[in-house]
Design a protein that fits this description.
By secondary structure, this protein is mainly alpha-helical. Helices cover 68% and strands 1% of the residues. The protein contains 20 helices and two strands. The protein has helices at residues 13-53, 59-63, 65-70, 82-97, 101-111, 115-126, 134-140, 147-155, 163-168, 189-220, 223-234, 241-252, 257-265, 280-303, 309-316, 321-332, 334-349, 353-359, 366-375, 380-404; strands at residues 171-173, 179-181. It is flat and about 95 Å long.
Length: 413
């Protein structure tokens, strides 16, 4: 039997090595822990909270428990009986005393327009009523005699609901509980999502077309000259995004610099000035200029690593210069192209300031609607649902890129 290897102090060598490895892993974990905590509280937790807010719906269940209980067995075929109206009266009185009736009315109004005034108006008078309640409610507001009002109450009874996601894709539940499209006059979110995708794709393609030759020139020039030109590429980062966006308003407006220049050159006359602002075209132009460096930097970092001898070797073997460039050089830049396109597209679909200032009505994107619901309408559930769909789209894009190109080939530098 072979002799057991030991350390200088007599411990088994295998156990000593295992202890040293454990200590090394523990030190690595402790070093990474502050970064993990920062990422968790600044990134992962807010996203999880947003996704939960998109399905959370505790307001009706907490503040109208008697009505929720009375509607559990309601079949939705006719207006509920007297017991449901009595429960509603008691809940409205209690909600008014606790000062929660405004929140309840606002939440119901998000789902069915006009219910805010119905709830608040009825709540003021319900505490003076005596049984029976049913006819008093209907006489006060005709909406209490409609199935849609009670269907809305029952639909919002669960504490977890999908109504926000349905609203985010222009769908809703009807009185019978079927999923149907909303009225054509209120179908805005699907069109906004499609416009956001289309504009983001156009901006990404424009950045690629403009950024590829710039990156190629930077990679081909001597280091001293390329560094000077790289400063010009990075110069926009030293200027406020708000200032850059505002400057595009000066350039693109009807009486702006670009129209004046075209009139002066003779491309158009004074009566043919082009509307380049407060529309989708202005948004695309401004976003392309702002996001262009995010395409140039990944492309340049990849092109700089491609040896010039590849092209010379292809030409020496009989390939035309353009064919050598297309068949040899471009395939080697695919990691940079993929990284730049992915980065620009993800930034573009979530852009807010530029569409808000330059886009006008035709150039608005889904991020502007999310901001509207967060800041003005205060419908945070719908805003979270819109953000959740946007996040799902980014994850799907990331997955498709991994399947087609391979995330291991993604190179930012």
């Amino acid at each position: 039997m072979s002799e057991l290897l030991t350390t200088a102090d007599g411990r088994p060598l295998k156990a000593a090595l295992a202890k040293a490895e454990r200590s090394k892993r523990l030190r690595a974990v402790l070093l990474v822990m502050p970064l993990f905590i920062f990422i968790f509280f600044s990134f992962l937790y807010p996203i999880a909270l947003m996704l939960f807010r998109s399905v959370e719906n505790p307001l009706i269940a907490e503040h109208m428990p008697l009505t929720v209980a009375a509607l559990e067995k309601w079949d939705g075929k006719e207006v509920p009986d007297e017991a449901a109206f009595a429960a509603l009266a008691e809940d409205l009185v209690a909600a008014r005393k606790s000062r929660e009736i405004g929140k309840i009315a606002t939440r119901l109004n998000f789902e069915t327009g006009g219910l805010r005034s119905v709830i608040t108006g009825t709540g003021r008078k319900a505490e003076r009523w005596e049984p029976p309640y049913k006819q008093k409610f209907i006489d006060e507001r005709a909406e209490w005699g409609m199935l849609e009002t009670w269907a809305t109450l029952k639909r919002l009874s669960p504490t977890i609901t999908t109504v926000n996601y349905l609203a985010a894709v222009d769908r809703k539940f009807d009185v019978q509980g079927n999923i149907v499209q909303v009225d054509p006059n209120y179908r805005i979110y699907v069109d906004l999502f499609m416009r956001t995708m289309w504009m983001s794709i156009v901006v990404t393609i424009a950045c690629l077309i403009l950024g590829f030759p710039v990156s190629y020139m930077l990679a081909s020039l001597p280091l001293r000259q390329s560094n000077m030109l790289m400063i010009l590429v990075l110069l926009p980062f030293w200027t406020s995004l708000l200032v850059r966006t505002t400057s595009w308003i000066v350039l693109l407006q009807t009486q702006g610099v670009i129209n004046d220049l075209m009139v002066w050159i003779g491309i158009i006359n004074e009566s043919q000035r082009i509307q380049l602002i407060f529309n989708a075209q202005g948004t695309v132009i401004a976003m392309t200029q702002i996001l262009l460096p995010f395409m140039v930097l990944p492309l340049y970092s990849v092109m700089k690593t491609i040896p010039p001898s590849y092209l010379r070797a292809a030409e020496s073997l009989g390939a035309h210069r353009f064919l050598a460039f297309w068949r040899v050089y471009v395939p080697n830049t695919l990691p940079g192209i993929g990284a730049g396109c992915l980065l620009v597209f993800i930034l573009a679909i979530g852009y807010y300031i530029t569409p808000a200032l330059v886009g006008g009505q035709d150039g608005q994107m889904i991020s502007n609607m999310i901001a509207f619901h967060m800041q003005k309408s205060l419908n945070w559930g719908l805003a979270a649902a819109l953000g959740g769909i946007l996040l799902a789209g980014v994850i799907i894009l990331y997955w498709v890129y991994n399947k087609m190109v391979g995330i291991d080939r993604l190179k930012m530098g």
